TrEMBL record:
All residue ranges annotated as the EngC GTPase domain in the record: 124-269
Keyword GTP-binding: yes
Assembly with partners or alone: Monomer. Associates with 30S ribosomal subunit, binds 16S rRNA.
Protein origin, superkingdom: Bacteria
Gene name, Swiss-Prot/TrEMBL: rsgA
Residues of the CP-type G domain: 116-271
Protein name as it appears in the record: Small ribosomal subunit biogenesis GTPase RsgA
Family membership noted in the UniProt record: Belongs to the TRAFAC class YlqF/YawG GTPase family. RsgA subfamily.
Organism of provenance: Streptomyces parvus
Length: 370
């Protein structure tokens, strides 16, 4: 049954000593799950999901359960790391099975790399998204903004964690630069090697925490420092291109000794936005604010007269880089939405079809010369 939360610094290597509360189960979840117990189901949290199988931590201990295939009508039916699920325990002749995914409070979702309308849920029921950025490499503000849009859109609270501070000559300047690209977000400077900033980071992280960032950002090393044990695989960064070796090949959930849960993710080669309007609004909060005073309600902030966003670029309140990044991510988000919205897709394709028709007509003209 449900137990109140208590921390077990020494229990991390011994999952059998942990309770569901150590993984984030609370009284509200227990209350809503009640009726399912009458059907012989037990609650659990997915700590790893791959190829139709889930490693689930349940009140009876760790369970390896089959995941029923999705009906194709709902993304929610496919369990992912962080999901709370209803499990039918194994019988004499049957395997344990995940029969339902409980309602997600939050979800980190990205567009798949393929040209389809599918979204990929990276993590569910996350409270804090720690966007990890290595100070050993040149800052890529556009990538940070992209990650923040993903984080804000999930419904969780984003935090930017600057790692490898011991390898940066001017951490103060770097943090100030990142802060301009992350309005309303706490920016923390840390070093897993020296321990700098780890106390502050531990105090800021709350609930289920996901580390998000590219390979080589030092996520797993940082995670191990937070856990107090080397439970997450780490690897050297290649000197040739500064990229990590994707040592984390799957997403996995581990309780933190001071309370909360850590979700380590693979280094993300690319993060596509999927229906992230709210995330972009938060990430570019100052542009959203400026846009309210534009002359036209549907102002695109490109060449329109009376555009307060362009005026802010003119007088230096807003950088051209920031506006360009906003436009780029907005275009990508609109295109991603168009893949799932037939009417919007038709609207976007119409101008291209008109241009194609004009080009064909021009080529057929007797006056056309190559």
């Amino acid at each position: 049954m449900f137990h109140q939360h208590h921390s077990h610094p020494s229990a991390l290597s011994h999952p059998s000593r942990l309770t569901l509360a150590d993984y984030g189960w609370d009284t509200e979840r227990e209350r809503s799950f009640g009726p399912s117990r009458d059907e012989g189901l037990i609650p659990g949290r997915v700590v790893r999901a791959e190829r139709g199988l889930c490693d689930v931590v349940a009140e009876t201990g760790p369970v390896r359960a089959m995941a029923l295939p999705s009906s194709g009508t709902s993304e929610r039916l496919t369990p992912c790391t962080g999901d709370w699920v209803a499990v039918r325990p194994a019988g004499p002749a049957t395997s344990a099975t995940v029969v339902a995914v409980l309602e997600r409070r939050t979800a980190v979702v990205r567009a798949t790399s393929s040209r389809t309308s599918h979204a990929q849920v990276l993590a569910a029921n996350v409270d804090t998204v720690a966007v990890s950025v290595s100070l050993a490499d040149p800052l890529k503000l556009g990538r940070i903004e992209r990650m923040l849009a993903l984080a804000w859109d999930s419904g969780a609270t984003p935090v930017v964690v600057l790692t490898k501070a011991d390898r940066c000559a001017d951490t103060q300047r770097a943090a100030a630069e990142v802060a301009k690209a992350a309005p309303g977000v706490e920016v923390l400077v840390t070093s897993a090697s020296t321990g700098e900033g780890l106390d502050v980071l531990t105090a800021v992280l709350a609930g289920t925490v996901v580390l998000l960032g590219p390979s080589g950002a030092g996520k797993s090393t940082l995670g191990n420092r937070l856990l107090g044990e080397d439970l997450l695989a780490t690897g050297a960064v290649r000197d040739s291109d500064g990229k990590g070796r994707h040592t984390t090949a799957w997403r996995e959930l581990v309780p933190l000794p001071h309370g909360g849960v850590l979700l380590d993710t693979p280094g993300l080669r690319g993060v596509g936005l999927h229906d992230a309007d709210d995330g972009l609004e938060h990430t570019f909060a100052e542009i959203t604010e400026l846009a309210r005073d534009c002359r036209f309600a549907d102002c695109a902030h490109t060449t329109e007269p009376g555009c307060t966003v362009l005026a802010a670029v003119e007088d230096g309140r807003l950088t051209q880089r920031r506006l360009d990044s906003y436009h780029r991510l907005q275009r990508e988000n609109t295109y991603a939405a168009s893949r799932t919205d037939a009417r919007l897709r038709a609207e976007l394709e119409r101008p291209m079809k008109q241009i194609s028709r004009q080009v064909r007509a021009l080529k057929q003209s007797p006056h056309f010369k190559v």
